[in-house]
Amino acid sequence: MVIRNIFRRRSPVALSFLEMAISYLILIIWTGVVLFPLYWLLVTSFKLPIDVNMGPFYLPFIDFQPSLHAWEYILVGDLANDTRRNYFNTVVVAPTSAILALLLGTAAAYGLTRFEYRPRLGIILSFLGALVVVVFAIVLGAPWQIAIPAGVALFIILLQTVARRFQRTLKNSDIAFWLISQRMLPPVAVVIPIYVLFQRLGLLDTHAALIITYLAVNLPIVVWLMRDYFQTIPVELEECAAIDGASRYRIFWSIVLPLAVPGLVATFLFVLVFAWNEYLLALFLSGAKSQTLPLTVAAQNATRGPQWWYMSVLILIMIVPVIAIAIALERYIARGLLVGAIKG
Amino acid sequence: MTTERVSRSVLADSGLGVETPTISAARPVGSRIERWAGNVFILPAVLVVLFLSIFPLFLSLSLSLSRLKFVKGGFEINFVGLANYHKLLFGSEQDHFVGVIASPSPLGWAFFLGIVAFLVWWLVRYIRTGGYGVVSLVGRVLTAVLLSLLAWLLAHTLSPGGRPGTVVVTLLYVFIGIAVQYALGLLLAVLTTQRLPARRFFRVVFLLPMMITPVGIAYTFRMMTDTDKGPFQPIWQALGLGLYSWVNDPWGARAAVIISDIWQWTPFMFIVLLAALEGQSVELMEAALVDGANRWQVFWHITLPQILPVSTTLILIRMIEAFKIVDLPNVLTNGGPGTATESMTLHAFIAWRTLDLGGSAAIAYMLLFMVTFLSMSYVNILRRRVVEA
Fold first, then answer.
1. Structural domain count, chain B
2. If we measure between CA atoms, which residue out of B384, B372, B367, B308 comes closest to residue B165?
3. What domains are defined for chain A?
């Protein structure tokens, strides 16, 4: 059956033999481009330092004698405790922050497609004004115990006076744009204040600090992708449920979410991979206790030069779970990402 | 006003600006918790973003306007106004941040004048259509002026004798990277949507690089680019280049960073374009083929217009992400040789490491400004084309 499908030209879209050969050639070349660095990681992880330093060796057992020394060092030897702890940290931080981002972001995206929000511009401007004053006061040396109550008082005064003059309201699209635009924020622009914030709260070098930060970084992209998705789901079903007396939370939970599974899965994978692999923020916010795996990889570039064999092992054990998840969910990814833009 | 206008166009572009249906009419107002449903849905996200983006953003702004000084038993922060920005743009850090300016080659002039001509044409066409507001006209003029300025900068720092600073290097990473990633991603997606056996295998394999931590990719490519012990050493020898290390050449090093970035992010382009291609209508394509159109015509006139909306959003997402590039140059080349491969984020990170917090925040702010401005211009210029296409 399969063979017949290959050789029969079913429609004008089908390819001639030559076209097929060229297509395969390109696909196979790119497969090589993708797989060769991964193959090199794999063989390097079985090399002794001397095999790496003697120049390139390609084939285990023929070019060089494979050794398990790096795997032993990482998994049961000297570094085993670090590896286990950092692996555990990553396994806690990445999925937790991804699930939280998905939860909050999906709810916000749903709200933005199905409700009308009219926040008053005056209130927002008063709030931002008060916030600016407080931040500047604290930076210029005022104690926060005084600055924050003063800021609250200022906010209330502004609300009662100036804000009443501004009757303009924002719309849903403005809120969505504001949320999405937060993704434009380079992490390096906010990481120092976040560092100070967590230091004050005593949360530095904890899982919570990383989870909260990744949540904030990933929320915008979840809102962006899921909002696109919800707009493709017809609203009639929800209207029926509402007439039958279902509450809005129930509608969201038992009607909308099940319909959005492909989008949810694709978005989840996207934010999970980001949190799993993130390096810069983790570098700032985690110390010895809450280190994640990217930091362990970077740490193998020691004073004796990069320890390629250890690094290769770490990179490999780091990508295995993500790749397993990706292969399992592959069919959702294509259907889920950017589907709103595709249909629209 | 300008932001609001642009915001709407961003949303329209990504398919976000659709009329919002409400279900409020279908149901009488119930309990209090029911009435609050709208806020319950959106407030958690808004609060998180407010506290972890807006608040640090203001704090960063105030940091960028001050200088950290170490005194006995701690440090003090002094307000210095725009000194940090002045240092980057005109002062001691100018060579590092903006680059060394030299008079451009004829090619540089052609590039610069080409960009200016395009922007003038764009503005003139906009004005001649009429029906514009003063605010949006000012916004467009500003866009055109700033884009010309960037083109001027590119032409002057990339010419012989000049040296690109971190701004220009970041722009090169973003634009060259995205162009190649898009082209490659599209090619692979087109090939994979054909009815080939084993296409699922290709799909999974092509996805892999996206899943690897950028730090890991950077180290892997450091092995790949090693001309002494790397896997391509024999080829290098055969070409007679011996131990010449191309990563020690500024342009070679930049190319290495861009190649690693392409290796990592082509999968993202690929997977989204694949979904877009599979969503297009096959009937239209078959009809055109039956009518005697060749494959290229079908691709150009039928497939490409259908995937254009996705492409704009996709490129916007990648652009926003690509500006933040830091792991690759940091590990792969350590920013060197000299500062040749430093991106803006890496520049800010290095400034932070030397405890120049104000300078670091100022660089970060310049980056934020540039990302926002370029994303907006991109959306603004492209929206027309998409609508007309």
1. 1
2. B367
3. 14-67 (no CATH), 79-116+183-343 (1.10.3720.10), 118-170 (no CATH)
